Each structure stands twice: as structure tokens, then as C-alpha cells.
Amino acid sequence: MTIAEVQSPGSTGVSASGETVVSVRGLTKIFKDFWGRPKARAVDNVDFTVQRGEVFGLLGPNGSGKSTTVKMLLGLLYPTKGHIEVFGRSPRHVATKSRIGYLPEESYLYRFLDSGETLDFFGNLFELPPRERRERSAQLLEMVGLAKVQRRTVGEFSKGMQRRIGLAQALINDPDLVILDEPTAGMDPIGCREVKDLIIALARRGKTVILSSHLLADVEDVCDRVVIYYGGKIQAMGTLRELLATPDVMRITTPLLPRETMERVLELVRADVGADRVKLDTPTQNLESYFLGVVERAKQSEETSGATSGHRVAAYLRGEADQGTSANRMLERLTLPTAEQAPEAKAAPAGPALNEARLSALSQNQPEAEVKPVVSQPTAPADLAKANEKLSGLLGGKGQ
Fold first, then answer.
1. How many CB atoms are closer than 10 A to CB 181?
2. pLDDT value at 269 more than 90
């Protein structure tokens, strides 16, 4: 049985929610010289909107206005004319900026910081608590394949590895709008595939992604809609299905057929549409799929000192609840009152004596339920310091 197959490039399985995240109307940017005379019309009367959960592509040759548009969306440039709204506000609104993650075309990083220090620095800019910064940094480094080289300074990284850490810093604040300018520049095919998988995962969680890229294959794989710039103007805009479909051509895909069956099918088709309009070939996989298959097989027996691959999207980017570390769970058990306390004891705070009893039970593998709660009055600082020292020893320095 034959299967009629309609090719739909750019299908990500993502549908926009209808909520407008970015609205651009009549956007124009004219750069002027020292004397105030118009020098270049970088963006000329551009209109478009981007919906929540959509992957939106900005395409065009060099100098067509893509990067200028991105900088105006970020509030880094002021438009000469027109109106921009991001989350219903001006892109220069501080609270709006905190909801945006941005990967510039060039990774501007402090070359003498290592990967962990870099992410900690950017996380601190968003005022993330120290524990959350550490957890997110660890997840991001694992996701971008740099966990094993995180102690190397960023200045030692290749361009592709710098793009990986740049992508991680763009996601440290769990942004609602992610703007990526040439995210796969300098990356190997494995990294390119992982970035595309990440973009799709973000969109499925309801994040909005604006992707500016010269690599049309990347855009085709992940984008729902695109605009094509030339001369600062939008020359084409729409979904990839609308722009790329060839409505007067059909492709039929079947398993390998016997020669007699194939000849009968071709005879029928040629009689209907003409022999010169029928082409017969064998489907092939693209080079990216073949390359990834070869590398995946090699990973089973070979080691590498470069960036690694095959990692899951960071848990907080997937929206999973933070389960906490075992050390943090142990701290909660040690500091919360137990259920066996008498009513009058529950009103009193859990003191060092109760904590020390629990510590002794844990260190001797004794069930905590067997420990009788002890309520004591506040003790001297020396006793409290002793209990804290014992707690730190048991946890191996964690939770500090």
C-alpha cells in the first residue's frame, strides 16, 4: 500500500497561545552621521507580532536590519519612528528586561573566569539566591556539555565552547522571552542539534524564542514563522508551510516494491501526467542525521577531551519542581519539630538538644522515630557552636 506524504518543513509541534509577547508597528531606525545627516536606513517601516510559545525567525543577508531590530527589541537602541511593546511594556522597562534572555552574535564574556564563575556572575545580576545560582549553574553546565571542563577559564575555550557557555548565561534567569542571535555559530553538528532541541523544548513549555540566523537549515527545523529582511524592509513573512510548500507537486513514499508493481504504478502515473514530469529516486537521510549516528556509535567506545553531548535540558527549564538535595532534606529533618512532641512542647522552639539527639541517631543509623524529643531552654553560644560544628561534620560541609 502506498502512503501519500506531504512534507511540512519547520514542523516543531508548537502552537502559539494567542497571547502577544512582542508587537512591532512602523518600526524605523535611521543612523545619522556626526552632522545629523541620514547615513543609513537600517530598518524601514517594519510590522510584526510574536505570540507566546512561538519560535519566530529573523532571516536576511548581512546588513539587512536583523541585528538592529534585535537591539531595539532589547532597548539597546532607540527607534527613529514606530512603536515596540514587549510583554505590553516598553523594552526599556526594567521589570521587562528581567524576563528576557539574550545571546548576542559575539559572546562577550570575562575570559579569566571559569564556567561556574561566569554563570554565578550573571545569576547574581538577576539577584538569584546563592543556592539557586549554584543549582541552575550545575544543571546548565551539564546541559551544554561543559560540566567536565568547568574549571577551565572561558578564555581557553574554542568559539563553539564559548557559544555553549553564552547560551547557558542567556538561560540562567529562566526567561519568558529568549532572543538568540546566531546561536549555533562555530558549533559542531552535535551542538547545533542540541541547540535546536533546546529551542523546541523551551517553546513547548510556553517560552517565546526569537531566532536570528544565517543557517537556513536550523531555522527550517525549529521555526513556526519567519520574516525575511532585505534593505531594512520585510520582503516575506509567514509560516514555513505557507512559504515553502509547492502546491502543484505531490510526493508518494512506499516500502521497496517488486519490479512488476513499480512498473504498473509508473505506467498509470505517466499516462495521466506525462512521462517527462515523473521522477523516481531513493529517499536519503540528511548529512546531519548520518553524522549524529556515526558519533553516537563512537561514543560507546571512545573518550573525548572536548565538549560532550547527549544531555537533557536543565530541570528548571523543563519546569520540573525542585526536589532539593539530600543535604537540604536532611537539614529540614534536623530543624523541624517532630510529630511526637507534646502540645506544650510544640509551642517551644526546637533547641540544640533536640538537634543533637537527631544527629546522634542519624550518625548511628538509628531510626529518627525512636529519638525522644528534648525541649530545652536556649543554651550558651558555645553549646550552639558545638552543635553546628557536629552538623557540618555530618553533612560534609554541605548546606553552608
1. 20
2. no
